[in-house]
Amino acid sequence: MVGQKYMSMLCDHPYFEISTVTGNKSVGKTYFEAVQWIDQIPLSDKYVDLEIKSTEPKSVDADFVFSTLPTDVAKKVEPAFANAGFPVISEASAYRMSDNIPLLIPEVNPDHIGLIKKQNTSGYIVTCPNCVVAGLAVVLKPLYEKLQITKVIINTMQALSGAGLLGVPSVKIIDNVIPYIKNEEEKIELESQKILGQYANGNIKNANINFSATCTRVPTLDGHMENLHFESTLEMSPSIVEKTLLDFHPVPQQLKLPTAPLDPIIIRNENDRPQPRLDRLAGSVAGMSITVGRIRQGINSKSICLTLLTHNTIRGAAGNSILTAELLYKKGFLKGN
Amino acid sequence: MVGQKYMSMLCDHPYFEISTVTGNKSVGKTYFEAVQWIDQIPLSDKYVDLEIKSTEPKSVDADFVFSTLPTDVAKKVEPAFANAGFPVISEASAYRMSDNIPLLIPEVNPDHIGLIKKQNTSGYIVTCPNCVVAGLAVVLKPLYEKLQITKVIINTMQALSGAGLLGVPSVKIIDNVIPYIKNEEEKIELESQKILGQYANGNIKNANINFSATCTRVPTLDGHMENLHFESTLEMSPSIVEKTLLDFHPVPQQLKLPTAPLDPIIIRNENDRPQPRLDRLAGSVAGMSITVGRIRQGINSKSICLTLLTHNTIRGAAGNSILTAELLYKKGFLKGN
Amino acid sequence: MVGQKYMSMLCDHPYFEISTVTGNKSVGKTYFEAVQWIDQIPLSDKYVDLEIKSTEPKSVDADFVFSTLPTDVAKKVEPAFANAGFPVISEASAYRMSDNIPLLIPEVNPDHIGLIKKQNTSGYIVTCPNCVVAGLAVVLKPLYEKLQITKVIINTMQALSGAGLLGVPSVKIIDNVIPYIKNEEEKIELESQKILGQYANGNIKNANINFSATCTRVPTLDGHMENLHFESTLEMSPSIVEKTLLDFHPVPQQLKLPTAPLDPIIIRNENDRPQPRLDRLAGSVAGMSITVGRIRQGINSKSICLTLLTHNTIRGAAGNSILTAELLYKKGFLKGN
Amino acid sequence: MVGQKYMSMLCDHPYFEISTVTGNKSVGKTYFEAVQWIDQIPLSDKYVDLEIKSTEPKSVDADFVFSTLPTDVAKKVEPAFANAGFPVISEASAYRMSDNIPLLIPEVNPDHIGLIKKQNTSGYIVTCPNCVVAGLAVVLKPLYEKLQITKVIINTMQALSGAGLLGVPSVKIIDNVIPYIKNEEEKIELESQKILGQYANGNIKNANINFSATCTRVPTLDGHMENLHFESTLEMSPSIVEKTLLDFHPVPQQLKLPTAPLDPIIIRNENDRPQPRLDRLAGSVAGMSITVGRIRQGINSKSICLTLLTHNTIRGAAGNSILTAELLYKKGFLKGN
């Protein structure tokens, strides 16, 4: 699912173009033969005849690589590429929590790029977070900085594409909700604390926020919805929260990176928004803005509720990786066109 | 939707039988002609030819009435029936919060029946709660009494049948979630506080629990799922919460009322339960037990998360009303067979 | 649903722009207030403040009108507009079968425009067909002309948007199929015979094809799928059918009308296409091409099966009307920019 | 999916009880550990601790075996069991078309049991048809015998459970229809012709009916819907078709077999029935009756349209196999309690 988004999003990219696609059982086939294309945007003709190569450094002719490998495969393959001189931008969870590897959302912690220097390889690895965190941390960043929030209770209603093509069989989810996604709740806490953490002297000091997450799978195709209830040590009103989110103007927007939407966060004032089907493609770069709605007082005057929506395979995966590549390129860490 | 559940659940009832069905535009038709039957249990032959009567006391030949009227209609019609001598068991929200009218869940607050004495009519009105509260309050009752919980953050994923036959158009909800249900969040707080409140000297003192609710509509047919995060002034472990719920043995089960399930609360230990489609019909009386799962520590040692599932048109509506009627009958407030 | 498609498709149109929107209960509101916008393409800012006018000639300042009125309303209102001098392009079924009113698909029967001369009003009415016929007749046109087909058995699986915003309640269609759509099967036969009929001397001689239609509603949002089994008096092979469809190059494509897709018919050779979600937006003008697949021998050597897919609110409604307006404009029957 | 139906349907069976369950990767586990139970009827306690055995004759202690093996496995394993003395009642397609193996629907061709004599093994194999044919052939049997139908055009809308637990990923089918099911269309023709064929002198003469089938997958959980258009050499009216179906009183109903529903075919006269969700559990044995509706004239006076609905994992699989076992038992081909 995510691979198909890369193909669409990089089809006419100003900095990068796809030179090689690798695979496993499909090596030697064309991309058209290998893929079960299910994106509503049709496969571009320019990729139809790309030959699938094996996933090893010597097969790849590229300035850097995007990795969407399964965790266990990534664990071995990504260091092999880094050792062979490739910058690796990875969505795998294998190295997200490593001390010397940045876990990046360009809007949130671009300075964490500094960790790359601590890697003793000719190439390097940077990672991108879990698809829930990719939206969550963007919203929490200004709230944490300006309003000193300390506790976040999060309930997610996650889309099917987040589990991959074969992840959720139809007979399990139609007319149903599954209140469990393996390892997801732990990742939300750990990854958010690292991403929102402070970088200094080559180290990251985790953010001081506690999380309690409940993750559910619902029968939507794309778009993770997240209901937050967060508390601060200070009084907070819905209007100050709204203002804080609207005032957020981070690095990718300042740099006008091609995949950065004009508004990283869009606020809807209707009482029944955001909705996955109506808001998942929000933003000047479709699917890259996070939509926030239902901002209201929480259980007391120091707590607030809100609902946010992130396109999980765009903002939560391919889009965040491409935006990361653009940031690295602008900062001189990557070659491009 | 709810009316159809009454027809099925009362079809072979040991105390009661349906003598009259009333309607509005369909007066004079047979029940078969008037109804758009969509329950998977087929309409019983014994109701096919029932003639629809007008909704006024003089048309009704019965010992008591169940009311599933819309709020604004209930506001006028229910007192008319009470004045004409009928006990009225109502699911409408019109009088739920009235000082002299009990809001009943037989497992939770059977003693609130005492409020009936304060009504100066030859008949009387008792009410049943909102479909979310009908499950929620059963779970909170033992937790509030034994573990002194003080704060509840609740996120619901509610089924379509809760909105009635025409409530949610298909084009709005397929591949979607709607993060808003009108008036629902307020009702959860107010009704729970009344139901869990203490009855003494003809008055109810509201329970001292704060709530923050976020209600969403998801594309399931039946079964409201509720994710709770609750806090106490005391330390709480998942095992003490589990034990507290399992030890709950309230009045309807003690009285062996026909619609009372053997277990008011069923606990599932699999990590992906409860699920609406698999658990909504749980219980020795199908759909009357509440299924609880995923009991685990919350954001700190004084907080717990859990997920519960209630069949919204059975436990959350028709079943709770019928159980209420059974309780009233056993206590001498109603005539039956 | 269809109204919202007009707003999107006419937003940057080279010939036409929307001057007035009319309504009934919403007169005086802005379009933003009046509409329940549910299209994934957001409402354009330029329409937000349009004031809704009443549906009568004197309220309308326009060179011509599109009508998406309900049949019974259209019956009175459309002649009133025609009498007041307006050309009316209508999707209502009220006048589709009238002798002096063309039922138009620009790719199929542009010459039927001639019927307009028979209307004795200062304006005139032209109509567009049912959303199933809008795709069906485009495919049948070359087959009827070149291969002399005489019998068509059609089974449809129609999308929810075809029934309008409130047409199909979600509790009726999730995990279900409804094997009946009121009046639909009759319309398919009658409208197809008129559209495929021959225009001569101011009259239409119906096409000599018999139909048997079975129409079902399935839980898809957009995109009507139609399985055809058709017979000829001649032998037919799948390849000759494919060639006949690909060779079809009708008037709107010859005139390069702005809403005419480069290919009126797209053929997919994969064995599992067309699919509603993957193919409904096919075409150089999204949603205006009809996708055909699974062309194969039928029950004998003179019969063929195929599956076609039409976007019901674009090609089957708004798009066909706009294309009709473009044809009328090019032929001098309408004023434009 | 089908295995779970066997467990439920045999739980309190008057003739048979389950002694052994076999598996492959799960050998040694308990049934509870091995199964991903997703049936709404909960797993019976009596099976929870059954140990999974390997699929070979020496591991099985039983009077006969039901086989739901994949085709390629069945090809080897079923003859091994037959050679070891077991009667095998199989749902696999491996041997359905073999000359000396009956393909049985007890209502349709009980006399085909005679083919067993032609098998030179101490045990034997009988097979059950494809899940579409299991309903189709019951309806066609009286029509073929009494009305001499010669051509059948069939369009199916098949449920997800027909493809097994992992058969259809949710991301492929939500908001979609897939117009292709591998090998299904061929099976419908071949299997129907054999089942409806005449048995004489140890041979089957195929029925003289031509078929053209189009099979689609729709997002329903259970219940295959089939739209038929059939032709005869004779004139046929809807009423004669209805009468012919209602008069059908085959062997299992005459023998009052425990899994035979009182009515093999139920006719609904509402214009929007049968519907999968409302009718799939029809019958005095839930899910064993076939519901027929929308009987009406077809494309000419010698053709008729109708819609039928079959529960694919009950009537189309487990139920038909169990009914076959009951027939074999009554006829002395099986031992039981």
Class by alpha and beta content of chain A: alpha/beta
Hey, which two chains have the biggest interface?
A: A-B, 38 and 38 residues
Show unreliable segments of chain A: none
Shape of chain A from CA axes? globular
Measure the end-to-end span of chain A: 26 Å
Mean pLDDT of chain A: 96
CATH fold call of the largest domain in chain A? Dihydrodipicolinate Reductase, domain 2
Can you say what the CATH homologous superfamily of the largest domain in chain A is?
Dihydrodipicolinate Reductase, domain 2
Can you give a write-up of this model?
The structure is a homotetramer of 337-residue chains. Chain A is of the alpha/beta class and 337 residues long. In chain A, strand 12 and strand 13 (303-310) form a beta hairpin. Chain A has 2 domains: 2-130 and 318-330, 3-Layer(aba) Sandwich (Rossmann fold); 132-311, Dihydrodipicolinate Reductase, domain 2 (2-Layer Sandwich). In chain A, helix 1 (2-9) crosses helix 11 (314-330) and helix 5 (131-147) packs across helix 7. Chain A has helices at 2-9, 31-34, 45-48, 71-83, 131-147, 170-173, 184-195, 238-246, 251-254, 276-279, 314-330, and strands spanning 21-23, 52-54, 65-67, 87-90, 124-127, 149-158, 198-200, 203-205, 210-217, 224-232, 265-267, 290-297, 303-310. The longest helix of chain A has 17 residues, at 131-147. The first copy, chain A, is built from 11 helices and 13 strands. The first copy, chain A, has a 6-stranded mixed beta sheet with strand order 9-6-10-13-12-11. In chain A, strands 3-4-5 form a 3-stranded parallel beta sheet, sandwiched between helices. Chain A has a two-stranded parallel ribbon with strand order 1-2. At the B-C interface, helix 6 of B face helix 6 of C.
